[in-house]
Please model this.
Amino acid sequence: MTCSNAQDAAHRYVANRLLGDELEAFETHLLQCEDCRESVRLGSAARAELLPRTGARGGRRMLGFGVLLAAAVMLAVQLRRITPLDALERVAPPSFDGGAARSDADSIAEAVDRGMAAYAAHDYRRAARELARAAERDSTAAVAFYLGVSRIMSRDEAGAVRALARAAQPPGNPYEADARLLTAKTWLRLGHPDSALSALGFFLSDDAAAVTRVRALEDSIRRVRP
Amino acid sequence: MGRSALTGTKALLDVDAHLAGISAGLAIVCARRLGNRDDALDATQETIARLLVCVREGRIICSSELAPVAYGIVRHVISDVLRARARSGEGDAAEAAAAVPNALEALVREEERRAVAGALDRLSPGDRDLLRRCFVDGEAIGRIAQELGEPAERVRKRKARALQRLGAALSRSKDWVTKGALAR
Model:
């Protein structure tokens, strides 16, 4: 791979769109080309800022999440054949920067903190256990949301749907859009595209960006479902 | 003097010249595949250690072989980490092997993100949208150019110029991954 065509590959690498031989060629090139590493660096920084967010841009409290960008998962070592629905159901766990899901009560806050520490360390099974304990006494959308994500990543889809249903309540809370998107993706994982559409179908919001993301996933499911 | 000793000495000199760059590249690859800074740093170090053994044993003859050999090694190291995770119940290997989508963004330091945010705000809406389509949506330049009705080369140059403006907001750092993010 030469640097001129690698520059085109660099942005697709950052966006997790390179596959197979192209991915391997670019990564090998990356080991020997400072310019392309710099492009990856700048592109990653730009991507971090340009990803759709549910809250204020750059804010520390909210999830910075392009949950809809779940399809942007690298497929290089996937063993099975990828279908359009497979791509839609992919989930990118939203990053957690340490300031979101706190509860007021001290005892619950400790469980939440343990859960979110595990979440930040990508230990989703432990995060799911701790957050489930917290969620028994803390009904906030934030705890339910991260519990839902942790369960998705632990392959507990049924539990994830339950938690995310709580995270979507009350309507209008900051987690509602992402909770609905993730619920839809979880239904896709379970092989129920119609349920996925139902999860998205009743979403109303003043947040135009959130509405756009929900409708985009809805349209994509309609286009590719069997 | 045996061939391996001679080539080993020559290659060692070349390794010194290339090691920082290869380490940074390996760290990016590891972070992408493993999604965890600590694991990425460990895998990078393990790969470098194995690479140096290859050099010492004279199995690498010239510097142009360093990157392909390093890439071959790192793939094995990453596979070992993923298999170990699967064995310890942290997830199946195939799922774990899929890149963590936010891993690269996590490598960018907070102050760099702030600097880039300011630089992005100074870009024209068109250039900002172009960067979004490239780095967030991962669209091919050809497709973007077709939709915009512009030659691909012009779009490519616009993207390069926009990136240069972002780069001006940041100091260039050869070891940005290992020094900046993986070490924190």
User: Anything to note?
Assistant: Confidence is low (pLDDT under 50) at residues 53-84 of chain A. Residues 137 and 156 of chain A are 21 Å apart (CA to CA).
